[in-house]
Design a protein that fits this description.
By secondary structure, the protein is α+β, with helices and mostly antiparallel strands. Helices cover 38% and strands 21% of the residues. It is built from 14 helices and 22 strands.
Length: 569
């Protein structure tokens, strides 16, 4: 599973055939390491995604919508200045490496024609997106600046001369004409795994999975040279494939590789990557952008769970309160037998058939004071019961609240994190990032709209993605006669069916949405309660999104991602 040089070869062909002669119409940077260049080509707007993400570095066309920041970054502004209106002349690959160069012609402020190269290097943590002036070879800007303190060989800074990544002493398999070395390797290393390792050492652009597939092809009947050519010819006529492997992993390849259990084909490489990366990259972006929120929630959960253990331990001690009362009463009854300075005394316990009871005494207290000490201890524990019960209830509510926030972050889109951050700031769990700034008037936070789905019979279904969205949806947006759904005793989204009398099928589909957008997403037979909105109440002083309800009925559903995608508007 790698975006290796050979896969890049196939992607280069796809992008060149789709985008060449196209004109740049928009440039946005929705995430720190990713650039979206919209190119008008073949009478369509094509979204070109360039990602220098350390984990998901890639280049592709994408149909996934992105939410752009309200204020563009400096890098975005420089890209717009130089590339807006530019014509894409060609897409070139550096040897068979994971480097693609998009060559543009544009005009500068004086109207003179300029030649620009937008280079994307997909090399894990060294991935980068670099704009280069082809006339003088100088870097205009890079999405990641790399100074001399990090890399003395290659400076990736504005104004520095662009130097290509170091070349390796390996062969480009697409330009290979002699195959004696391949035959020798097969003779020396008959084992497929060992052969694959040695093929990677001599050929450029082979990931581990590609080298294993090539080794398997070479061992097939026929001449090694013919098998070698047949393997690499398939990168020129790809059949984009998503494969299920024996170790429960999923792999994407330019064509079906040997050893896959199940293959699913896609029309284009870009659609394949959209399907493969949609959830993974989204989850990674959420974790990257929500790192502070995740840490705050983890810290609060740890603090409250520790507090709950201590409170329950203290509560367990109150169960022994009667022992202190009994000892106090026995000491009072036999007060004449006590003397100052005694450390212990054994007296008959008339609450247990006069069984001898050993009682500890303080040598510093009088007999009467020792008896009073036990009564005071008893009274303190009895008074603590009410307080401890209240604190346990409040702490359990805090744990439920933060577990709910935690599950909301897991299912959040990056734009939903704004609402979650604002909620934590309002609750004073997170310092308001606006504090310290002089503001004439505090702006009212705009809450994002819930996501809209359409049932199979055309009924609109709304799903809140966080507490603020949930509260607005249920308490302000929904009609009192509409249907409200939520997973039973499980943190999750509020779901509203915009109908007074929905069909059974719509109810089931809405319940599926409620189960999918909850902590029980990966479970089966998830209980989902539903009732009319008029039966929902919010107690005074409770956290955002917290409600109580009655007159509910319950459905059991199995969350289905395919159904969610089908219903998504």
């Amino acid at each position: 599973m790698s975006f290796d040089g050979s896969f890049t070869h196939s992607m280069r062909n796809e992008l060149a055939s789709t985008l060449k002669t196209g004109r740049v119409s928009k440039i946005n940077q929705p995430y720190p390491n990713e650039l979206i260049v919209t190119i008008r080509a073949q009478s369509k707007n094509q979204q070109l995604l360039l990602s220098a993400n350390p984990t998901y570095a890639r280049v592709q066309l994408t149909k996934i919508p992105y939410v752009n920041p309200s204020v563009p970054s400096n890098f975005t502004m420089i890209m717009r200045k130089h590339l807006s209106g530019a014509i894409l002349v060609d897409v070139q690959q550096l040897d068979n490496d994971r480097v693609l160069n998009f060559l543009f012609t544009s005009r500068n402020e004086l109207g003179d024609q300029t030649a620009l190269c937008l280079s994307i290097e997909m090399m894990a943590r060294h991935s980068n997106i670099i704009l280069i002036d082809q006339k003088n070879g100088k870097i205009i800007d890079a999405i990641k600046h790399v100074g001399a303190d990090v890399n003395r060989y290659r400076l990736l800074l504005p104004g520095a001369t662009y130097i290509e990544p170091p070349k390796q002493d390996v062969q480009d398999p697409f330009k290979k004409t002699t195959f004696e070395d391949i035959t020798n390797l097969m003779t020396e290393f008959p084992n497929v795994d060992v052969l694959a390792t040695n093929l990677r050492k001599g050929l450029q652009g082979l990931g581990k999975d590609t080298s294993l597939a090539l080794a398997s092809y070479l061992h097939q009947s026929g001449k090694p040279a013919a098998n070698f050519k047949r393997f690499f010819d398939q990168f020129n006529t790809p059949k984009p494939t998503l494969s299920n492997l024996a170790n429960n992993k999923i792999n994407f390849t330019a064509f079906p590789y040997p050893g896959a259990i199940k293959n699913q084909l896609y029309p284009t490489l870009s659609e394949l990557l959209d399907h493969y990366y949609a959830k993974r990259a989204q989850h990674d972006r959420v974790r990257e952008q929500g790192a502070v929120l995740i840490q705050v929630v983890k810290k609060q959960l740890k603090k409250n769970r520790t507090k709950l253990k201590r409170l329950k331990r203290d509560m367990a001690e109150t169960e022994n309160a009667d022992e202190y009362r009994i000892k106090g009463e026995i000491l009072t009854t036999y007060l004449n037998q006590l003397q100052r300075g005694m450390a212990t005394i054994e007296l008959p316990n008339y609450y247990a058939n006069n069984t001898p009871l050993k009682i500890k005494l303080s040598t510093q207290l009088s007999p009467s004071e020792n008896a009073q000490r036990y009564f005071k201890r008893y009274q303190k524990l009895k008074n603590a019961v009410k307080y401890l019960n209240e604190q346990i209830q409040l702490t359990e509510q805090e744990i439920d609240y933060f577990e709910n926030i935690q599950s909301q972050i897991e299912i959040a889109q990056p734009e939903d994190l704004i609402d979650i951050r604002f909620e934590l700031e309002q609750g004073h769990y997170l310092k308001d990032h606006e504090q310290g700034r002089k503001k004439k008037k505090a702006k009212r936070q705009k809450i994002n709209k819930p996501e809209t789905f359409i049932s199979s019979d055309g009924t609109e279904i709304l799903v809140g993605k966080n507490n603020l969205q949930n509260e607005r949806l249920t308490m302000h947006t929904a009609d009192k006669r509409e249907i409200w759904l939520h997973t039973k005793n499980i943190p999750g989204s509020h779901v509203i069916i915009r109908s007074f009398d929905p069909s059974d099928n719509t109810l089931t589909e809405a319940a599926n949405l409620a189960a999918y957008f909850s902590k029980a997403r990966e479970s089966s037979k998830v209980p989902v309660d539903y009732t009319r909105v008029r039966h929902i109440r919010k107690p005074n002083g409770t956290k955002p999104g917290f409600v109580i309800y009655d007159h509910q009925q319950t459905l059991l559903v199995d969350p289905s991602e395919s159904l969610v995608n089908q219903l998504r508007k």
